[in-house]
Amino acid sequence: MTANLRFDGRSVRMTVKGERVDTGLRKLGAVIGGYAQTGINVSLMPGVKVGARALVYPGVCCEQGMWVVGRFSSASPTWFPPDCLWYTRLYRLNRYIAAYPNLPKRAYGSRRVVSKLCGIIGLAFAEGSGVASALVRGLKRLEYRGYDSMGVAVIEGPGRLVVRKAAGKIEEVARRTGVLGLRGRVGIGHTRWATHGPPNDVNAHPHTDCGGRVAVVHNGVIRNYASLRRELESRGHRLVSETDTELVAHLVEDYLSRGYSFLEALAFLGRVLRGSYALALLHSGEPERVYFVRYKSPLVVGLGDGVNAVASDITAVLDVARDVVVLEDGEFGWIAPGEVAIYRPRGDGGFEPLPPGELRRRVKRVEWTPESASKAGYPHYMLKEIYEQPQALSETLEGIIEDPRLERAAELVAGSKGLFIVGAGTSYHAGLAGQYYLSRLAGVVGHVVVASEHKVYTPGVGEDSVVVAVSQSGETFDTLEAVREWRRRGARIVGVTNVVGSALDRESDVTLYLRAGPEIGVAATKTFLAQTILLQTLAVAAARMTGRLSGGEARGLLAVLEGASETVTGRLGT
Fold it and tell me: Domain 111-377 carries which CATH code?
């Protein structure tokens, strides 16, 4: 078998059967030309483009760096249509090979739409009353993200907004709260990974306003939630949960009470919220619509037959829609059973609808099957989590920079007479990096301790000691043993964990949360980077306390850290 390979525009005919088309060809712009054939057991490396109507045999080894979705294992050759892209993300092995349709690279080739801490879905059906069961099916598609609670809100009729939510697994919560008994055509659903407040029934989404007329689900982190919460409470709003999400419902309620429309309220949200957020909202006075907002957190609109949808991940709507529009930062709008409206902000503070022609051009057809979309299309969780690293860094920084707990932790570290950083495995190595920055930036020198050897250091721990305990799960046995023993000796504990409500969270005087989302793979990837950047942020804050950094210098370093997500994105080639 032969294939046409093009080097810098010059066509060369060469045999590829049994040969490895390797990375060197990427630099030369290698192309397996249109109508060319590959041999069996050829390896395609990143940057190699397969031309339109090229004949690619099963058995081809497809390594990370190209696009993939289906699975072909027959003995016959497989043809691919002209609209397939092969530049990025082909990572299945041996007989697994296929291609996404022509979707934007940033939407499905990049980590930015693959991960997130929570899963959200909104559905608007033209007929029937089974939206609750459809929401549950969609949420099941998002289980690969990990979650600790779930909930739905359904409009059962004009003026009647019903919420069912609780901590626990989807099937258990649905059974216990009677979710499937809700009757309606329009609703929203959510799976939560706790970032603000422990996993419990009150903190589960959706959240509502004081009057129970607005319901919201949220994916992301609202950086300025503490100041907004204080402002809302000063105006008489009653917030019952510990989440950053609930305040969104109260903000919308506040705007509506001043005579603004729901769309105007969404535009105001874009001006006051800082951080990252994808929102889906219901209003009992508009029973046909699901409203949405997107900023730095993924959101797609699905267009189906007699149903429209909005979700944080296309996998959630595959049962009802295959045509999608990937929303861009700042866009907001609504879906109804037969209509979709998308708006974007203007420079003068107003907003305008997307022109119909632009909206039509942005509609893309997805040929995924629900089965091929498990684990967001990745062959295993570890690879998925590697590509989630940019978002883990972004979410961690968004959540910590203005968190009042960071200042309290920095005060403890800066004022300590004896600092101990304790962790096990990867967390220990993150601690080594953290101590380096604390020493260089803040002038605070401490001991980094492998948790299993904590007894060696116990005689040196006392009431003037501060312990920074690092544990992704918050349940690491040796780390907890060290924390409990040193706490009994009077040490103050700063916990660094990815799990709100974990044992480490409960044992700590101050807890700093990673907000990296669940990590299922055994080898730590995204949580290690999140731990490292959080400890770097703590070092910057401590340096401000010790006077070794001015305010301007600290802001400059934080700006560098905020660019880490883009740096990792570039290194991953996404």
Answer: 3.60.20.10
The Cβ-side half-sphere exposure at 243, using a 13 Å CA radius, reads 28
What's the 3-state SS for 78-96?
A: EECCCCCCCCCCCCCCCCC
When the pLDDT of each residue in the chain is averaged and rounded to a whole number, the result is: 79
Alpha helix positions (H), 277-370: 356-362
Dihedral in degrees, nearest 10, Cα atoms 438, 441, 445, 451: 10
What is the rounded (10 degree) CA torsion for 91, 92, 93, 96? Answer: -150
Angle formed by the axes of helices 526-546 and 404-414, to 10°?
60
CA dist., res. 89 & res. 73, Å (int) = 19
Q: DSSP for 174-189, please give it.
A: HHHHTGGG--BSEEEE
pLDDT, residue 374, reads 59
Cα–Cα separations (whole angstroms), residue 556 to 117, 302, 393, 536, 552 = 28, 40, 17, 13, 6
| pLDDT at site 249 | 96
The H or E element spanning position 411 is helix 404-414
Domain with CATH 3.60.20.10 in the chain: 111-377
Instruction: Please provide the CATH number assigned to the domain covering 383-572.
Output: 3.40.50.10490
Residues 6+ apart with CB under 8 A from 213: 161, 253, 283, 284, 285
Instruction: List Cβ<8 Å contacts ≥24 apart for 457-464.
Output: 457/420, 458/485, 458/486, 458/489, 460/418, 461/418, 461/420, 461/486, 461/489, 461/491, 462/418, 462/489, 462/490, 462/491, 463/489, 463/490, 463/491, 464/416, 464/417, 464/418
Measured at the alpha carbon of residue 489, what is the angle toward residues 484 and 492, in degrees to the nearest 5? 70
Helices 564-572 and 551-562: crossing angle in degrees, nearest 10, is 20
| Residues contacting residue 356 through CB under 8 Å, at least 6 positions apart | none
Distance CA 482, CA 127 (A): 59
Q: In whole angstroms, what is the distance from residue 395 CA to residue 296 CA? A: 10
Coil, helix or strand at residue 134:
helix
pLDDT tens column, 343-373: 999 888 789 999 988 888 888 877 656 654 5
CATH 3.40.50.10490 domain position(s) in the chain: 383-572
Give which of 449, 459, 458, 462 is closest to 417, Cα–Cα: 462
> What angle is formed at CA 528 by the lines to CA 523 and CA 533, rounded to 5 degrees?
170
User: DSSP class of residue 241?
Assistant: S
The two tokens of residue 435 are 């101590």
Structure tokens at 340: 């979709």
Positive or negative: CA dihedral 399, 400, 404, 405: positive
Rounded CA gap, 209 and 193, in Å? 21
Cβ(500)–Cβ(528) below 8 Å: no
Query: Within 10 A of 488 (CB to CB), how many other CB atoms are there?
Result: 10
Mean pLDDT, range 379-398, rounded to an integer:
89
Q: Give the Cα separation of 190 and 160 in Å (integer).
A: 19
Distances (CA, A) of 429 to 7, 422, 451: 44, 10, 12
Whether this prediction's pTM lies above 0.70 is answered by no
Q: How far is CA 234 from CA 229, 247, 273, 409, in A?
A: 9, 13, 18, 27
Tokens representing residue 312 in the block: 């944080």
